[in-house]
Amino acid sequence: MAERKIFAGPKVRRIRNGLGLTQSAMAEELGISPSYLNLIERNQRPLTVQLLLKLSSVYKVDLEELRDESGGSLNQLREIFADPLLAGELPGDQELVEVAEAAPNAASGIIKLYRAYREQAARLSDLTSLTAGAGQMPLAGARLPADEVRDVLERRSAYFPELEDAAEAFSARFAETRDLPTTFKEWLRAERGISVRVLPVHVMPGLRRRFDRHSMRLFVSERLSPADQAHEIAIEVATLALRDAILAELDGLALSTPEAKRIARFELCRHGALALAMPYAPFLAAAQGSRYDVDTLRSRFGVSYAQAATRLVMLQRPGASGIPFFMIEIDAAGHRLRRAGAQGFPHSRFGGSCPKLNIHAAFLQPGQILAETVEMPDGASYLTVSRTLEGPNVAFCERVRRTALLIGCEAAAGEASVYGQVATAQRPVAIGPACRLCERRGCLARAEPPVTRPLGLDEMVAGLSSFDFQ
């Protein structure tokens, strides 16, 4: 059998130094010459299988430790030097291998320092969030274009005046029409020569909508519900009919990169589609007449729950506004998918990350509307209305994409809605901002200790929370 050659000189030297042996003494016990051992320790000679067995029998060395060329720290070092702060420092992995092999204690120190750096960066971010004003965003490092667009849109009102005016002017041409999807299809065909076709899943398995410029056809997936199919058609109409208004609103967002502007243009097209399907004045009148009942509104305008709820957040025209709702959508893992607010989402007062919010409980009751009043530590109270949303239709054995949407407003304003009556009859739920920023004691839902308080490490006392603090 061919011998496997393993170069592990630094490890052999550590073993020898740990035992307090000279090279001559170790060489004698291994049955080799001191000069040969010296070459092994300098990685100029390999460890043969026979020598590995000798090391194991004489010094009780774990053979797996010697066979491991990089040690357990190499992957962690790779992760550290993949950080944007250090990404350009090393041309390859060879130096990391040498550090992990020749100086494992130094490698361990680097790993500990990097962990401490990340922890301090997280704490600084949390503290910045805590001290930020109601209309401010926390300080951040380099941002992706999508992050920049999301931050800009979340800081401002969801009402876009030029876009709304253009959508109303366009919709006025079809004021007597009840079947807007059919009207939009006819407009695309007559004005732009575009035909609309719904394709089966196997033809377009991974897309919601696709426009073929060559054949001038708009394809929509049959995975979507009728309301979502109509929304995709409305997006195409908004892209073409509201182009000037969209570009004007885009210029006002002051985005820094072409990619960010491209992403924001898509978002404005989606806003425009909602404005076309639910024209401002008729929708505001219907909202006020129904006391902001989302189910009534979606039935009346032929849209989905998510579309009607999102449209409520956009009703902030000066002199003709609705309840100043804000909105947040998350997935089952708690990831924030989108957030918007009438005057910018109140970040510092209502972080949206408290596990006691009913948006998290909504996943336990799919399709049910949950309404309640919540109270922050500073006494501010809000009406919150949450419900799950179903994604595109799925085939057998596919997992349903389910998210949850919360719309809310200050409790006093919420009394004008149908949900306010139910919520005010119940005791407010005591919530807080993100756990790292919340100082409520005895919270059964706490997931992390507050960054603003030291942990209460008293072995004689155990609180209700998993994280006791002073």
Automatic annotation (TrEMBL):
Residues 12-66 form the HTH cro/C1-type domain. GO terms for molecular function: DNA binding; DNA-binding transcription factor activity. SMART domains: HTH_XRE (SM00530). Keywords: DNA-binding, Transcription, Transcription regulation. InterPro entries: Cro/C1-type_HTH, HTH_RamB, IrrE_HExxH, Lambda_DNA-bd_dom_sf, ScfR_C, TransReg_Diox_bact_type. GO terms for cellular component: cytosol. Belongs to the short-chain fatty acyl-CoA assimilation regulator (ScfR) family. This is Putative transcriptional regulator. It comes from Rhizobium tibeticum.
